Amino acid sequence: MRPPILTEQSIRAAIRELAASGERITGVAVRELLSVRYGARGGVARIYRLLEATRNDERGRAGRGEGGRSASASEETREAAIGRADLAEHRERTHQERWARETDALRARLAAAEQAARDVDVAKRRIVELTRALASAQARITQLEQALPDAD
Question: pTM higher than 0.70, yes or no?
Fold first, then answer.
């Protein structure tokens, strides 16, 4: 087996050059650049392996480089979540207090209506008793008037 014509450094340099130029970095673009520069395209599997390794390296550096921002972003996200939870709790407490007041008001109205119904029943019974007493008194008056000698 013969040694590869292109070294890993030359392939990685081609990948960096494409990245610096702002072009889309694909295996085909890398192989074309290598063909123009060195007259050899390189092995497909090797090119894609190095391309993937380079992408993973860049992702790792980007993740480490944004560590401060990521931590502060997660802290801001956490603070925002706590703020939303506090607001939701406040709204729930307000909601519960409102419905408790309305429930108490309705219970008071119901108690007053029940008391009024009892008062009406008592008043009806009293009216019936007074009506009987009046009828009895009128009958007694009539009886006494008839028993009186005619003073005429």
Answer: no
